[in-house]
Amino acid sequence: MEPQQFSLKTGDKEISLTLNNWTEQANGSAIVRMGDTTALVTAVMGKNESPSLGYFPLMVDYEERFYAAGRILGSRYMRREGRPADEAIITARVFDRLICPLFAQTMRKEVQVITTCLAWDGEHDPDVLGLFGASVALSLSDIPWAGPLGAARVGRIGGQFILNPTYKEREQSDIDFIVAGVQDGGNFLVNMIEASGKEASESVFGDALAFAEPFLKEMVAFQRDMQARLGKQKALLVQPSEDAGAGKAVRSFLQSRLRDALFAGDKGRRMDALAALKQELMAHLQAVYPEASYAKDADSMFEQEVDALIHNAALTEGRRVDDRALDEIRELSADAQVIEKVHGSAIFARAQTKTLSLLTLGAPGDQKILEGMEFIGKKRFMHHYNFPPYAPGEVKPMRGPGRREIGHGMLAEKALLPVIPNAEQFPYTIRVVTEVLSSNGSTSMA
Hints:
Layout: E1 4-10, E2 13-19, E3 28-34, E4 37-45, E5 58-63, H1 86-99, E6 111-119, H2 126-140, E7 150-157, E8 160-163, H3 167-172, E9 175-184, E10 187-197, H4 202-230, H5 244-262, H6 267-288, H7 295-316, E11 332-336, E12 344-350, E13 353-362, E14 368-371, E15 376-379, E16 381-386, H8 403-416, E17 429-438
Parallel strand pairs: 5-6, 16-17
Antiparallel strand pairs: 1-2, 2-3, 3-4, 4-6, 7-8, 7-9, 9-10, 11-12, 12-13, 13-17, 14-15
Helix pairs in contact: 1-2, 1-8, 2-4, 5-6, 5-7, 6-7
């Protein structure tokens, strides 16, 4: 394949796109560049279906390389990249949230999207560049996907919006707004927003979206034209077939039983009632239909019926499973200094969701040392989030923080950072740890 070059203007900047055969074993790939920042994005789909999975197996990775910044970092005894930095994990989660809704969730083939930063010029962030590359790689591949999508970062300096600002411009900006979505006729439909601001009003973000929308539409049109000329034929999406007899048997047994279990009361009673009902369903199918293989599909059918009843009750009856009105929030409470000896503590409760946050003040020398592709320096404010298995009432092995815990911790950290005193006013190192005690939704907000 002869290399093919494309370019797209983004305000006063330009995105360059190269298609070649460097990664010819991948289903789709693209090399994207802004300034001298360059990223390689690949998309690969597994060969085999896994129909027993109850979910779509998508993996999204964002890889930073020290060579991209011309640095030799890492342990003195290793001198190579190790586990992704928290910032890289956050970027991967942004990519995941952006592309995942555009896959059919009934897919049972593994899909992996990897973005690797090959070069970094210190001016242009590879994250939004990688989002564009992921969209191109998936759109031109044979992987079933409902893209392409448009993605952009918006900043604001002196009341003027800037498209895909440089790092220096972002330091002066009072907002950091990433938006992505798809084109549907004449409308641009947003499917992901990642934003932070220095106490910016809600209307500012609405204006930022309006500012970005023309470019986002142009980005989608650019990819659709490329897809029509160069895209592969999409693979046939195998939809899981439902045995008509099994569906009828499951729905006949559940009938009013499911409603009684779903509206049994608080989360504990509801989960116990649903678990008992599922066991009764399995036993019923095996006893009444011993010759049929209904039981193997009953688990997913049960979850589908639960999901359908929750949505139907909310939309047609205005009823939620905990019997709150649609506009009624859960009871809130909070208390401070609940643990002696530690430097600071507080507990917050939103009904059955409860979190305990504990604060430690340290000397300036306690700051976290950061060594990464994009940044070498120190960090004086940290927020860490722990989600132990007892919080949702489950039994699981205790391991280190996963992507979700890192993401939720950074979410709260980003929200608090603009109101943390600067180092001249308050030179101490601040670490806050949130322990989730009980989970019934929205623990990151708690």
